[in-house]
Structure formats: C-alpha cells, structure tokens
Amino acid sequence: MSPLFAVHISDGVLQPPWEWGGFAVAALLALFGAWRIRDEEIPRVAVLTAAFFVSSQIHVQVPGGPSTHLLLNGLLGVILGRRALLAVPVGLFLQAALFGHGGFYSLGVNSVVMGLPALLAGLLFAGLRRLPWLRRPWFRAALVAGSALAFGLSLVYAVTLLVTNNPKQLGDADLSWANRVTFHPATLAGAAALAALAAWAERRLENAPEFPLGLVVGESAVLATVLLNAVALVLGGRENWYSLALLTFIIHMPLAVIEGAILGFAVGFLARVKPEMLGWAAPERTECAVDSLP
Asked: Does domain 2-278 have CATH number 1.10.1760.20?
C-alpha cells in the first residue's frame, strides 16, 4: 500500500478497463498539449519536466505516518499552461522506470490524475490574475484566509470521518459525526481564527502581491489531484480502496499548504524577474541616460 500514498497508483490496483481508458484519455490530453507547439517552447517544457521528475525525491514525512513527496503539477500548469500535459506523462514514466513510483499499466491514469489539475491550475491562475482587485490588500487577505479556512475544515472532516468509522467499511460510512464535529460552532470559530491568523501573517511578511494567488492555485492543484486519485481508486479499484483514498487525502493536506507556499513564492519571484514565464508582458526597458552621453 505504501507506493499508493504518493498519488501514484501502482500496477494491479485498478481494473483493466480503467487502465486502458486512462491511456486513451492521456493520449488525447497529450495531443491537446502538443497542438501547434513551437520550437522555442520545447526547452522550457524540458526544464520543467526535469523539475517535476526531481521533485519526486523531495520527501515530506507525515508525523506518525508514511512519507509523500512534492507534486509540483500546479507549478507546471502555471508556467507551461496546456504544455504541462506533455511534461506530466514524461516525468511519470521516468519516475516509474527509475524509482518504481507508480507503474507502467497505470501510467495513463496517473497522467490524467496529475495532468488535469495542472491544466486547471493554469486556467485558474490566468483567470484570477485578471481580477482588478489582485493588488488590493483586502483581496489578498481574503484569498489567504479562504485557503486557510478550507484547509482547516477539510482536515477536521476527513480526520473525524476516519476516526468514527471502520476503515474497512468506509463505503457505507456514517457522516453524522463528521458533519456534527466539522460544523460545530467551536470548530468553525477555530477555523475562522486560523484563517484570520494566516491573513495577518501574510500582511506582516509583506510578500509579493502574487503570493496569495500562487497559494490558492497551488493548494487547489494538490486537492484536485488527490480528489481524482480517490475517484480512480474508489470507482476503478480491484478491491475496496475507500480507506486508502481517505488516508491519502489526509496525508496530503499538509502537502497542499507546502506546495501552495512554494508556488506563491515562485510566482512572486518570477513576476519580478521573468514575468514572461507567467505569460505576462515584460516591463518596458528605458534607455539609461548615462549610456546615451557621448
């Protein structure tokens, strides 16, 4: 079971129709990603593919549980856009061939599970950055607070659901305790306090205006990846993988925050030094007055 915790489904876990269907969908996504690709785009895709491949060796140890690793599919989506659909299957193939992460028969499903959130991240980033309120402090604080609130409530719900049910019978799980604990006034107050603290910390740290944008997109990419992974395990698994899907979600909650922070800092840095990598227009360069003197 341990190889499944890193959102890489191993061979023999899914039913054959899901494996072959995954290859078909992955091929269509790769074709969409390669459509009208230009020669000057290939080096960037290659570099980001290498970063995505290397990220599998950066492990995050969950206290009292297994270790997982960074995904970085959100970063691929933000920088590469739909070209990320080319980088993901290549990186996953190298991870399976060299390190045994995932499998070859499940390569198609794994490519879809990580490729679609990368595409979503690129679309979400492109849509949010057009909002006129991005550089308003209140809007950035709202983005950070919303991310922290969603993180806190999701974690409480998942942990309560796991603790109050038999892990082997999560297909018929009782949701009453999870709903009661998550939406209890004390839990809501604690989550609201966490959200306010996160917004205050973002203001105190004086990060780049793009940091909250990267935080939201990075967290969304990880959560979407875990959700698609759970759908594949629950609906296409050869066995009952409900408990594993829930455990995978829980251990990736801290990773969602880490990846969100990484993408936030990366977006803020690139916006200052290389905005064209984010699809933004480069700042106009003015001629230095000293250089123009005879």
From this structure: yes
